[in-house]
Amino acid sequence: MNNKRRKNLYTAIKAIEAYTEDRSLTKRLEEADLLVSAALAEEQDYFDVMPEGLQSGERGTTAEAAIDELTEAQNLISNLVNQTALIADVSDDIVEHITNAIEGVA
Fold it and tell me: How many domains are contained in the chain?
């Protein structure tokens, strides 16, 4: 392997490692998850203490819709957190394969 390709591959490794070392995305997602979780719990409590007559009315319907939407948002955030963990795992494998190619390991 010539030096130019080797240099480009080292640059690729650095880019991958920089991405996986930057945990800010995961931290922001976890923060969002906490905020959504708190809002969901509060909205659920609001609905639960609501008299039955109001639960079946407009306020109750609106609260139930908000609960459903927040539950879906929380599920999506959890999926994203799991995906970022998977990206980190796959990134390690990518770096290993590139390193093996540079070093001529078969």
Answer: 1
